[in-house]
Design goal:
Layout lengths: L1 H17 L2 H9 L3 E6 L1 E2 L14 E2 L1 H13 L3 E2 L2 H10 L6 E7 L3 H13 L4 E5 L11 H10 L3 E6 L2 E6 L3 H16 L4 H14 L4 H8 L3 H8 L4 E5 L12 H19 L5 E3 L10 H9 L4 E7 L13 E5 L7 H8 L2 H6 L9
Parallel strand pairs: 1-5, 1-12, 2-3, 4-5, 5-6, 6-9, 10-11, 11-12
Antiparallel strand pairs: 7-8
Helix pairs in contact: 1-13, 3-5, 6-7, 6-8, 11-12
Length: 352
Amino acid sequence: MASMKKTAIRIGFEALYFSGVHHLARPVMGGVGAILTLHHVRPRRRSAFQPNRMIEVAPRYLDAVVRQIRKWRIDIISLDEMVERLRARDFKRRFVCFTLDDAYADNAQWAWPIFRKYEAPFALFVPTSFPDRRGELWWLAIEEIIANNPQIVLLMNGREQRLDCRTLHQKRELYAELYSWLRARDSEDEIRTVVRDLAARYHVSIPEICGRECMTWDQIGEIAQDPLATIGAHTVNHPILAKLPPAKVMSELKMSRATIESALGVTPVHFAYPFGRADDAAQREFRIARDLGFKSALTTRPGVLFPDHVNHLWSLPRISLNGEFQQLRYLKVLLSGAPTGLWNGFRRVDAA
């Protein structure tokens, strides 16, 4: 199922590019700029089982993306300047903002040098439990559990189930099924309880994953001193905010900002919602981010920016640089606004 979806997306990109539709769409659907999302930036790994590969890109590709955007004479600007341009209605030149979510260790090793090479501003969004080494990256934990076992036993929908994952196909299908099932749980606590139990049963260390994958405060502090860098808040525990009560959402945002301020001496004024799809963060979360005084808050809803987004600064869309589609022609299609316009039913603003 997942491979069929990827194939369909690839065919769609190719059709939009080679038909020239993206050229025709850009004046109408391309907006005034875009915010690009990155997670992992690192050389491609050899493992055949990589269910999270869509959230990682190769350094060579990121380098090519930044170089190409410069070549297209699109401005690369900070989030502060993005807000200023929207408020001043300064749209003489199109712009792009780069954002890095989750403060993965490879960002310091591979992404940061590329942004310095091109003197390109970027934002790093930090879930504070990650550098504190208390983070639960449960999506990576279940990847490791499935990768290391031929079968897992799980209490699922009230029944104990034995789930085979001997072959590569079975592992991919099981990951997709288990990830979707976990995302559908009623509460964040339920997700984490299930994953903790699985990790204990199959001898996977969740703290070890956090320590291996995420930056330290010293690394983040070094990046924070770079004038090109903006440090943004990304909650404490990287939860699905829609699954939390209002007081807990408020606490996640306030505590993440306070912790970053204490650790780095800088106060984050921009926020990114973890798991920022429409069913993960909506009007309640947007209001809380606004009321707490953040200048902007970024979702993962797909889209480019239009002038009307000045009225929706706490529900801004982003475009993910997907590791499955590392082609510059796909970047050109994405920045045209054609695919996101189609996905959004030609609505310029999706802030519901």
